[in-house]
From TrEMBL:
Its EC number is 2.7.7.65. This is diguanylate cyclase. The keyword Ribonucleoprotein does not apply. PROSITE patterns: GGDEF. The lineage of its organism: Bacteria, Pseudomonadati, Pseudomonadota, Gammaproteobacteria, Pseudomonadales.
Length: 389
């Protein structure tokens, strides 16, 4: 069973032509479990493209009234023009009110509003047009309104969405199409409606593949940009960004936030005696051990050389100490000579230490790490006094 699952992920990865390892492919199916930085960048991109679409629709929607005026009766044109005016204002409001802030919930809401506006317009215009007897030419122009769901479904392709997100959006558009058919039940041309519905489903499948492919390349690019190439953990730049996000959340929710500096002991001597290749392998082994000992919600950052930063959101001082004691108990691997690889650890916590900025949090953890080194290394320091915990 496990072999078949791995083969499935491998085939999916080959189809998408990405460098994603199999363990990351589930991120294409659902937003649950996606890294914080990926969610932030994806949310920013989604909102930016929502605003671009809103601008495009806000400009083009009222322009079509010129065509309506040429073919429809004046009473129908006035109603459609008023409807288009409301839609135009709604698009401009969306463009004005929504700015990228890195929140995936905010991105979902913007995306929902973007597609809700033309969907409601489609249903309302469909109802209006159905109440009038149109000539052959005006009926042909009116039939153009029926293409709006297809435009919206195709528009999904520009957003980096997971399979679950694509299915939800496509389902809403399909339900709108079905509801429009229900409104004109008595005059509905069933063969034509069934063909259009099938085509809409087909377009939805193609756009889902396009959105997933976009997301796959985005995951690969973000992973390359935010990860340390040697160890695979977060790089310092991305670590600072992650800490900033968690600090803001801790202040907003008055929640705990712990950080720990982990400095591998006597690592320069290891490099000098055994070479940098052996040192690199020791770093890789140490990061693997660290990742096995911490939670999936914690972020491990290579801060520089042999120094790591562990960011633990929603973790108070007591919980953080227990986690780091578990790290020490599990070990960090071995040096080339067979001796255990140890570390000096400095721990600080936002609420426990009553800190005013994330820079203070980092500096205090760094100071305590140096106290642990000064006290003999291979220990954890979580006190402000010279004593070592």
């Amino acid at each position: 069973m496990i072999v078949r699952r791995e083969q499935l992920w491998q085939r999916l990865g080959n189809l998408l032509s990405t460098e994603l390892p199999p363990q990351l492919l589930p991120q294409l199916l659902s937003p649950l479990g996606q890294p914080l930085l990926l969610s932030q960048r994806r949310a920013t991109l989604i909102v930016s493209r929502v605003r671009l679409f809103a601008l495009l629709f806000a400009v083009l929607t009222p322009l079509w009234s010129v065509i309506d005026l040429m073919v429809f009766p004046l009473t129908l044109w006035l109603k459609l023009a008023a409807l288009r005016g409301l839609v135009c204002l709604a698009f401009f409001a969306l463009l004005w009110l929504y700015k990228p802030n890195g929140s995936l919930f905010n991105a979902y809401r913007a995306l929902a509003i973007l597609f809700a506006i033309p969907t409601l317009f489609y249903i309302a215009s469909h109802t209006l047009l159905g109440a009038y007897q149109l000539s052959s030419f005006s009926a042909a122009v009116g039939a153009g309104y029926a293409f709006l769901p297809f435009v919206l479904m195709a528009g999904l392709a520009v957003f980096p969405l997971t399979l679950a997100e694509n299915l939800v959006m496509a389902l809403v558009l399909l339900l709108a199409q079905a509801f429009a058919g229900y409104l004109s039940w008595t005059t509905l041309n069933w063969p034509s409606f069934a063909g259009a519905f099938w085509l809409l489903m087909l377009i939805g499948g193609v756009t889902s593949l396009a959105g997933i492919s976009q997301l796959a390349f985005m995951i690969a690019l973000v992973r390359q940009a935010i990860r340390d190439p040697l160890t695979g953990v977060f790089s310092r730049g991305s670590g600072e960004e992650i800490l900033s996000l968690h600090w803001d959340a801790a202040q907003r929710n008055n929640s705990a936030l712990a950080v720990a500096f982990i400095d591998l002991d006597h690592f320069k001597a290891l490099n000098d005696q055994h070479g940098h290749e052996a040192g690199d392998q020791a770093l890789i082994n140490a990061t693997r051990q660290l990742q096995l000992s911490v939670r999936s919600t914690d972020s491990l950052v290579r801060w520089g050389g042999e120094e790591f930063l562990l960011i633990m959101p929603d973790t108070d001082m007591t919980q953080a100490r227990k986690a780091l004691e578990r790290v020490q108990a599990n070990g960090l691997g071995f040096r080339p000579d067979g001796q255990p690889l140890t570390a000096s650890i400095g721990l600080a916590e936002y609420r426990y230490d009553q800190l005013q900025s994330r820079r203070d949090l980092l500096e205090l953890a760094d100071q305590r790490m140096y106290r642990a080194k000064a006290a003999g290394r291979n220990r954890l320091c979580a006190l402000s006094s010279p004593a070592v915990a």
